[in-house]
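note to self — DONT lose this again. spent like an hour looking for the file last time. sequence + predicted structure for the chain T wanted, 126 res
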Amino acid sequence: MGMLPADDPAMKIGFLEIGTGLGMVLCGVPGNALLLARKQIGIYFGWGLAAFTVSSITTGIALMAVSHDVPAVGGSAADPGIQHAELIGMVIGGGLSISLRVGILVAYAVALIRFQNWIAQYGRGA
């Protein structure tokens, strides 16, 4: 972010990405600790983590969409071949990254639902 001008739209989206990352930490660390301690309140923190993760994925997609026309440090703006290759690499890398994050998020949501069912069936003290 230090290489972009202050009025660049990617700066605003970058700050949103930082905010969603902070929200994931503030919900995820206590939520997972509470879930490990079998406390039901951890479910709410867990769903907060899931919501911040969805927001982070969305802002990451928006950041990729906004920043795709920024010339890279090594390439010149006049060389369309390099820009096209960088765009293809960004789409492939971003797609793989998003797929991995969504897969982990789905697994986490399934674990939260299973914990909710377990706590409903066996109670808090079991």
